[in-house]
Amino acid sequence: MTESVIRAAGAVCWRYVDGELRVLVIHRPKYDDLTLPKGKVDPGETLPQTAVREVREETGLQVALGPPLGETRYRVASGREKVVQYWSAEVTDAALKATRFRSNAEVDAVTWMPLRKAQAALSHAHDARLLGEFERMHEQAGGSTFGVIVLRHAKALGRSDWRGPDAKRPLAARGLIQAQRIVPSLRAWRPRRIVTSPAVRCASTVAPLAQAIDRKVRLEPGISQDAWEEGTSTVPEVIARRIMSGKTAVLCSHRPVLPDILRELALATDTPMGDRVRDAAALEPAGFSVVHLSSEHPTAGILALETHGPPA
Questions:
Q1: Can you tell me the distance from the alpha carbon of 12 to that of 94, in angstroms, rounded to the nearest whole number?
Q2: How confident is the model at residue 3 (pLDDT cuts 50, 70, 90)?
């Protein structure tokens, strides 16, 4: 991307009202338009962070991201290209009850519209087209979704610099920083469970996240590198539990184990193996892939798969 491109992110916020699917539309008095919640990336932010923050700032809603919906591209008044990445975001009853929207100079009204009405009312064609992608994804999911976030541990101390057992090898200074910086991005999906290899480098990677979201960490020897090397891995059982739980979870493991984890996610959901699944396992330290599944039919195929690199 060139410096002339404006990067932004947002979400299609949705809920059911008396059994009818509705999406959230905002009115911006400065432009006198009806559009979707979105905004520019702040320095140091990732796109998922931006999407969650902008929804909160413009609507007062705290949301968790669902499947990615793609991006819109258009020219702004200055002639620069603006590229906006969107996600689906279900608004729970609790989030709706907790919202404290106040009309302001940026957004003076928010409205829950039936999907077809929203497509017709939106001021910009690219927003209407995005709702078409949302409708396709929503119908495929059959409603709510959850994610399995496959995380490679952060940068560890090199083997040549460590004299103890490999499972005790700690994070390098860079890895400790990565473990802290990755937290805001992972929180964008609001994980409910944290499962990790007991190796120190994995447990240390998820420790800041666990503290930030006040969740206990489950140590799972079956996804450790030691188990993988010894042939005692229990990846199929671990993945089966995560799929059937229907709750968004983080799984932190090691580079050699990641292909098995992604392969098992594909097999357990009857998803054809392909480049996207294999590529999702090729993570750098502190990188992660999010596998999106239907809450109603979790074994009916991977809905979407997105990969994010390590924090800057």
A1: 18
A2: low
